[in-house]
Amino acid sequence: MEGLATYAFAYLAAAVLAVVVSHRLGLGSVVGYIIAGVIVGPVLHFADTGAGYLEEFSEFGIIMMLFLIGLEIDPQMVWRLRNKLIGLGGLQVTATTFAVMGCSIGFGLTWQQGMLFGFVAALSSTAIVLQTLGEKSLLESDGGRSSFAVLLFQDLAVIPMLACIPILSSGAAVGSQQADSGVLSSLPAWASTVVTMATVGFVVAGGHFLSRPIFRMIAKLGLREVFTAAALLLVVGIALLMILVGLSPALGAFLAGVVLANSEFKHELENDIEPFKGLLLGLFFMTIGAKIQTLVLVQSWPTVLGATLGLIAVKIVVLLPLAWIFRLRSSAGWLLALGLAQAGEFGFVLLSIGEQIGVLTRSMASTSVLIIALSMILTPGLFVLYDRLVVMLEGRDRARRPAERPDEGTLIVAGLGRFGQIVIRMLLANGYKPVVLDYRADVVDDLRKFGIRSFFGDAGRPDLLESAGLAKARLLVVAIDDADRAVEIVEHARRVNPQVKIIVRAFDRLHYYRLEEAGADNIVRELFASSVNAAGTALEFLGMHPYEVEKRKRVFVKEDRAGLAKMAPLFDSVTPVADNPDFIAGFNDIGKIISDAMAGDRGPFDEAVARGWNPPELETRHRPANLS
Predict the structure, then answer these.
(1) How many CB atoms are closer than 10 A to CB 463?
(2) Distance between CA 190 and CA 193 in Å, rounded?
(3) Concatenated DSSP letters of 212-240
(4) C-beta of residue 379 within 8 angstroms of C-beta of residue 406
(5) pTM of the model
(6) CA gyration radius for the chain?
(7) Which helix (H) or strand (E) holds 414?
(8) How far apart are CA 123 and CA 121, in angstroms?
């Protein structure tokens, strides 16, 4: 018991420490688990005892991951993405596999080893890429959606890869050993095939007709822990059945996941299995790290670095032409190519299987693990390179297409992002025809197809604003995404035309103060109104009467706006707010005032609040309601 406790403590401590540090460095959890494996293996030598049993146990993480991937296969989503999924994803996997295979054969490796390395190189890190795209708000862009389609195809391609790897084995011992371990070894070939097909059919039919009634019965009993046990029983049972007939347990788990993808228990199964999958996958990656030979790392670091850069280069060379073929614009194409240029987590699985069946030596497998890990470590740098390329490409597009001389108008809208689109739609719906300025040529071209007066150019340029009629304009709406640029536009517009009304989008309270100093008439915090409405709906759901909710919303908006006015003189653009004691004290005072107002201490204002369904008073009818 003492040895087991020490063993468990070493693994858990190394995992927690390495993964936390890896996340703080932006490298992701997979790299952290591999580093933890290096710590407990080659460094501390804790992985020597019971390593085989631990590795076999950790492989259930792969089985659970394939089951969850199957659960995520939505037929409707696959159909919507069919062109990019099959075309772009299929060509990427095929081209990368054969390109790396050709390079490997050129360096003297066998075709079996080359194909295995091609499989590994064709995959990308789903976890790292999707997380980074989400953090950068790029998932809904053309490049983000295309990247998701390719990653989805790669997940599907893992199944035929797993089926092909045993064929690559040059030794018959492995195959015979697997055959002897199953119950089919004594059957003739035709009977073995029938039993195998029947097993696959049983998994599909059982997942559809047998598992659902069982889960439904357990759900009615309300036994949460039994539901979790049943979910694990399903995955482990399918794995054992597939091993019994000599098939891949991962294939069986994937098929069961696909069958249950449209089940009413899909999300419950995901939530129950996800923690076990995460822990077991982490343990698997730690066993991968424990296998790394430090001597190989020291002696082969030039090979590792060169192969990593070569892998990234090959994937970029494959992905960029495919992006152009599928008509992804310049920045979207580079996002696809650079975002998917690394190797993926499942490459460790393929390498582990390749080593087990004798296709790779342990030295080759260790070196390949280092190459995959290094490519994943370099992924944040690839996204930084993408950001630099986007700036350069936008600047080149601006230089290639000179800014147009816009028509003069009494209403100017600068910027056509999510915020600007809604403003323009509202204006057009009420009969106003604004002049729209945006620096993205493709956006301008698309907008013109709808008959909107839009012109290419940087709205921050004084000459462009003046050409648009700023000196005589009645209204200027600043809806660009650049906070500093927005302040410059407001300052310039106020100097040129002191009479123009300026409505500008603010990102937060601090940006609000800067825009007020610049001379904006109306500052709209982009999330404030929607957040207040959401909070009001929450109060209604909690049982508060809609009339009372409307009063409290108006009180909150009034007090918050009053607080902004009081806080503006305390704002210092040079001193950070966290180091400004007057600003901190004022902020706390405003919070107490709002809390008191919500508690009922509203004074005469409470009686003057209009009902939410009443029209505004005559004196305020010409002033639009402002929730900024």
Answers:
(1) 10
(2) 5
(3) HHHHHHHHHHT-HHHHHHHHHHHHHHHHH
(4) no
(5) 0.56
(6) 31
(7) strand 411-414
(8) 5
Give the number of residues written for the chain: 628
Residue 536's identity, in one-letter code, is G
DSSP of 272-310:
HHHHHHHHHHHHHHHHHHHH--HHHHHHSHHHHHHHHHH
Cα dihedral 397, 402, 405, 406, rounded to 10, equals: -10
> At residue 561, what is the residue type?
R
Question: Strand locations in 458-584, DSSP E?
Answer: 475-478, 501-506, 522-525
HEC profile of 33-64: HHHHHHHHHHHCCHHHCCHHHHHHHHCHHHHH
CA distance 380 to 342: 10
In angstroms, how far apart are the furthest CA atoms of the chain? 94
Cβ contacts of residue 5 below 8 Å, gap of 6+?
A: none
d(CA 164, CA 60): 20
Q: 10-residue block means of pLDDT along the chain (628 residues)?
A: 66 81 74 79 61 63 75 69 82 93 90 91 83 71 83 82 75 41 57 73 78 80 80 82 74 77 75 77 75 72 88 93 84 87 84 84 85 83 81 58 56 83 84 82 71 74 80 88 85 90 86 85 84 89 88 84 75 67 73 70 44 43 43
> Which amino acid is present at 83?
N
Token pair of 255 as six digits:
């098929």
Contact 412, 465 (CB under 8 A): yes
Which residues does 578 contact at the CB level (< 8 Å), separation at least 6? 584
Q: Which residues are CB-contacts of 603 (< 8 A; sequence separation ≥ 6)?
A: none
